[in-house]
Structure formats: C-alpha cells, structure tokens
Amino acid sequence: MAGFGHGTRRHPRSRGRTWSGSGPDSATLGIIGLVCAVAGFFALGIVLGPAAIVCGWLAMGRSWAGPRPVPALVAVVLGAIDTLLALVWLTGAGLTGNGLL
User: What is the pTM of this model?
Assistant: First the structure.
C-alpha cells in the first residue's frame, strides 16, 4: 500500500486538454470539413453539409473568437450553404412530385 494514491505525481495531466494524443488536430478537421462541403454539392448534401459544419466548428475550437483557420471557416460556410440547398431541393422534390426543380 506504499504507492496507493500517488499515481499522479510523476505524470500530471494538463487540465485544459480535451483531445487525446492520437486524436485529430484542428488542421485535419478543417480539411476534412472542406472536403465534405465540396463533395456535398455533388452528392448527399443533406449528410455531408452538416458533417462539414461540425468538422469546421470543431476545427475552429468551438468558438468564433480569435484567429480562425481559413479551411475551417470555409467548411462551415459551405456546409451551411450545402445544407440549405439540400433542404430546398428536398422540399421542392416533395412539392412537385417528380423531384425536379
């Protein structure tokens, strides 16, 4: 029982760390969001648009304050446009009956 309760003395953890060492960093999430946003214009916009928004938001550090990486900001904006166009297309497809605008 000599070492019981003293396991954090040798390897203290920082309190502000939210990602593990093997998790994605903000640059990777920004690029993933950008790819999802661009691909969403061509296929599955209703799925890839929100995915781009989430990836971009996480890449920005879940805040609008401070400097923002450009790919993350572009991913959020294009993801929002993507989602909006997909919703317009889906409501138009439901109203006309044939799926064409």
Answer: 0.69
